[in-house]
Amino acid sequence: MKTLLKLELKKTRLWPCIFGGLAVVAAALAIGGMFLAIGHTSGRSDPRLSSLAFVLQMAMVILLVGFSLVAAALCNLVFIEPYTGRNLALTLSFPISRSRILLAKLIFVGLFTALSYLAGTAITLTVMLLIDRLVGSLGTGSPSSLLEQVLLMLVTSLAGLVGLVGIALSIGFWKRSLPIMFAVLLLLDAVVGNLLSQSPLLSALLLLIIFLASLPAWWLLHRTLMKIELP
Amino acid sequence: MQVLKADGIVQVFEGREVLSGLDLTLGQGEILGLLGANGAGKSTLLKILTGMQRPVGGRVCFLGRPLSEDYPGNLARMGVFINEPVFYESLSARENLEIDLTYLALADREHRDAGPTGISQLLDKVGLAADSTTPVGRYSMGMRQRLALARCMGHHPDLYLLDEPLNGLDPVAIGQLRDSLRSLAAQGSAILFSSHILSEVLRTADHVMVVADGRVSLRASVPELLNQGQEVAERTLVKAMEG
Questions:
Q1: Which among A127, B3, B116, B168 could disulfide-bond with B190, CB atoms 3.0 to 4.6 Å apart, if both were Cys?
Q2: Where along chain B do its domains lie?
Q3: Who's near B46: CB < 8 A, 6+ residues apart?
Q4: With 0-12 CB in 10 A as exposed, 13-18 as middle and 19+ as buried, what is A194?
Q5: Phi first, then psi: what are they for B51, rounded to 5°?
């Protein structure tokens, strides 16, 4: 499996995805910074806006939406491109069982997405906490409850990423269309992004529901790729 | 020894029968030239023989056993070249070959020693040593064809299935390919290749098989065909291609 993962790494042009990840972190910092500024100025009149927990939650929503787009771009390179058009002959010519190749691809995409998302979140939250300390803290409540909320959001966001990308990828692959995949993902991101401004528990529940809803989509994609043949 | 045997291959696309009970045998060291007009079913037949497309009817045996018995492991013993060759365009020829040989090494322990030296020899053999670090995206059609051949030859397969390998090659490269195929056949590999260039098929192959309307319209030994002279042989083949 290690060799298969190395091969996926070699075959995939990762730079656009890495730059995409950096852009997402920059966007999360910019928007999170804006919420921080609002919290420190006019937000004083609104207890929710002046809460650090809410500001961090907003930054994490931006990260979730942004990294779902990065993950979808990677899925295009790893799943859609190799299994469509002329590339299909090349992919099917490898004398390795299709399930092993698929598993390697899934692990590769999963590892890259999870690691880049975790690193992006760590950078964003650290920078925002530092800025908050420098300009005078917003109301945090208990630090342990803030940490609990961040961890809950982190874990459920990873599940949500799997769900959002899985549903969009399956529909995109079914239609053999990259624009359709991104259109579905943007639609889901828009709906989910708005709903995630609710309470942290409701957000976590919503992300878990999306994850569970994506399982049949992943299964369908797996079945299609296992049976695919040259046209 | 029989390397490849196909019995009663039937394939249907959108209600149209593309192959209608086609039979084929290919022995060790034999070169079979596959001819047919555009749309006659040559590429479809080759795709089925590689196992990358499933036929509606019939069966394919490779080295005496059903192809599906050890699939896709069987691909490690085939050199396959279907349609236009496809590569990782941003990678060099050397990197592309490294990827292919690593997959083969995973599939077959015998090829674990296929390293950079083997790759250099392969690139040298197909005349791409000087361009081995250039991204394949910048290659001409002929260079891509030669790299595809290098990929096929990388693991000394028992069977070569080559779809239009002469496309885009200049006369010198065609001559080199002919010599390569003859040498591979002399070493025991079975070769099935399709082409539209009748004269070249007659110069390279031991046998020719013509497909027309999804059936074998002619199968003949090349020396026998050439007994009547090159012109008559080519006319016979064209007539068979017309069905």
A1: B3
A2: 2-89+157-224+231-241
A3: B34, B82, B161, B163, B192, B194
A4: exposed
A5: 85, 5
Residue A45 pLDDT: 65
- Our CA-based measurement puts residue A97 at a distance from the nearest CA of chain B, in whole angstroms, of 6
Q: Is A10 in Cβ contact with B82 (below 8 Å)? A: no
Q: What is the CA radius of gyration of chain B?
A: 18
What secondary structure, in 3-state letters, does A135-182 show?
HCCCECCCHHHHHHHHHHHHHHHHHHHHHHHHHHHHHHHHCCCHHHHH
Angle at A89 between CA A88 and CA A93, to 5 degrees: 115
Assess contact for B131 and B139: CB atoms under 8 A.
yes
B54 CB near a chain A CB, below 8 Å? yes
The pair of structure tokens assigned to A227 is 């049976």
In this structure, what token pair is assigned to residue B105? 């090494």
Is the confidence at residue B96, as pLDDT, over 90? yes
Q: pLDDT tens digit string along A41-84?
A: 765 566 666 777 788 888 888 999 999 999 999 999 999 888 88
pLDDT in tens, B97-123: 999 888 888 876 555 455 555 888 888
pTM, entire model: 0.84
Q: How many CA atoms lie within 13 A of A145 on its CB side?
A: 10
Q: What is the pLDDT of residue B114?
A: 52
Instruction: Classify residue B193 by its DSSP letter.
Output: E
Contact A161, A113 (CB under 8 A): yes
Dist CA A220 CA B139 (whole Å): 38
> For B2-89+157-224+231-241, CATH number?
3.40.50.300
Q: Could you tell me if A55 and A61 are in contact, meaning their C-beta atoms sit under 8 angstroms apart?
A: no
**Stretch (H or E) spanning B61:** strand B57-62
Largest CA distance in chain A: 65
Which DSSP state fits A51?
Answer: B
Contact B72 A97 (CB under 8 A): yes
Q: Would you say B184 and B160 are in contact if contact means Cβ atoms under 8 Å apart? A: yes
pLDDT reading at B141 higher than 70: yes
pLDDT of residue A186: 92
Q: Which residues pair with B17 in a beta bridge?
A: B12
Provide the token pair at B186.
């002399």
The predicted-structure confidence for A11-20, as pLDDT tens digits, reads as follows: 888 999 999 9
Contact status of B102 with chain A (Cβ, < 8 Å):
yes
